[in-house]
Fold this protein.
Amino acid sequence: MRRVEKQVRFSAGIIAVAVAATFGVAAQAAPGDSSGPIQVHLDAREAARHILHVRETIPVSPGPVTLAYPKWIPGEHGPTGPVIDLVDLKITAGGKAIAWRRDPADMFLYQVDPPAGTTALEVAFDQLTPANKEGFGAAASASAQLAIIAWNQFVLYARGANAADIKLEADISLPEGWKYGTALRVASESGATIRFKPASLITLIDSPILAGAHFRTERLSKEGDPRPAYLHVAADSDAALQARPEIYDRYRRLVSEEMALFGARHYDEYHFLLALSEHVAHFGLEHHESSDNRIPERGLIDDDIRPLHADLLAHEMTHSWNAKYRRPKGLVTADYQTPIDSRMLWVYEGLTNYLGVVLAGRSGLYSPEEFRDMLAWMAAEHSIRPGRAWRPLEDTGTEAQLLYEAPKGWESLRRSVDFYEEGTFLWLEVDMLIRQKSGGKKSLDDFCKAFYGPPDSSPKVVPYTDEEVFATLNTVVENDWRGFFRERVVEVRPGTPLGGLEASGWHLGYSETKTPRLKAQEGADEITDARFSIGALIGKDDRVVDVLGDSPAARAGLAPGMRLVAVDGRRFERDILEDAIKGTRAAGHGSLDLLVENADFFRTLAVPYGEGLKYPVLERRTGVADTLSDIIRAHAPGAPAPAARPKS
């Protein structure tokens, strides 16, 4: 748990000096340092086979050299660099092979002792890209028709200088006929090879490439905008690119709503990279002038699937302000080998999650009904987290590097990366408190402009501490913000954090009818979600994914990993279980029998339950103004109101 202590408040000027010291001034010269640029040649023509080929020329100074493979990847909040997939490493100098040894204390470092007079190392290796769809950047990143290139996987560099001072000249060869999108500035193109302008290691790693055979680019900002934004989409089929024009228009509105919220931009150009495929991992990863977004192939054209990912691009673009421009001090390091302090992810990710769903509502990516369905599901899921009784929210950020990879079993008891969704309700409460204390004259939007806003700038990093967050909030409305966040973030708080939702005019309720979102989620994830009734989540192969700590299913003895075989004597299917749950209330007997397989053993569990089906919905609070609808109304000048959900 984080120590609660008084911290020094930095002025913006002092912080800017601190950033320059961290990123802009070369470290003291060390063996392996050189002022010449690293040459990187990436052959991605076999991306569909999940293997890419790298050749580097790395200038070095006399003496032993430590080559580093990026370990701590920004945005992934952990030592997730896929070094295990670096294969066939060969190092030469002057045409002669040089032996290397992996550092036994740090698997991401390679020790090399070049011959006297060596000025450059020639490095060649292959990088495998797994077909496994689980995880972040180290998961599946290519299909037969597209690929996402994350440069941290294709670079070795001589450790000893700050990442900002390491210069590179990179090029890439793509499969014939593929198009691409990236925030990197292009120097020239020759056939399928693209050469990029020189960039620092920070800029290169912060600028992925999306490429594919089926490709579409949409300009999202007006012609003549000095800081333009683009949407690049690669898909496994041309059909997946043919979204209705109004869908692409909503992304144009998103860019306008982001500007209306923050009042300034801290990028020169912004590039959404959106991959549509069933064969890559599905997630989003932020970068300063771009974002890596991956959703199912029909994610833009299927009105059932689309709302499940409607806030993804809004979330990732918001990170350009909250994560890349302003960043918690513990997440600012001089290179990619230094561990991070991620305790403040309740701001980095939590505030971004809140702003992302709000901006999706303001831009029409969510209809008002879709927005409320999403919020209801999120509120209900975090109302059944017994792990909150022992673990504070801050600790889920501190341990994020492990929690991202934690198993799903007993997630409700362990807690997961709850700073995302619980952070949404935390910042909704902040928003409502500002509105109430100011008599409706101010909102969290005012904090966003003060903390992340004018003037416009090119990409840079301005770190902050929690004390600066509290101080800026106090310039909007005076309050004991330190105490507010200590109670909700630093201390254990068993109660559900839904005060802001209730103050906004809505409360969490339950219905016997599934919402469209839950129906789509169950279909997409191949799950049966009975957590809000008997307390069980059933996944693929009829396996129990999670059981709530003090639910009827837990009291009966059900546990993650068991396989559900039958319900009341009949082979398990989703409809069979739901009919049985519904029947407990209608029949009045208040129980159902589950036949389960635990390894090689079978057992019938009597689950005491009599409340019928329960699915989360938001319900209006009588006598309380509907501020939630005002929060998600369009704010950008000239923007139309969000459209209603299409009728099925």
Observations:
- Confidence is low (pLDDT under 50) at residues 1-33.
- The two ends are 48 Å apart (CA to CA).
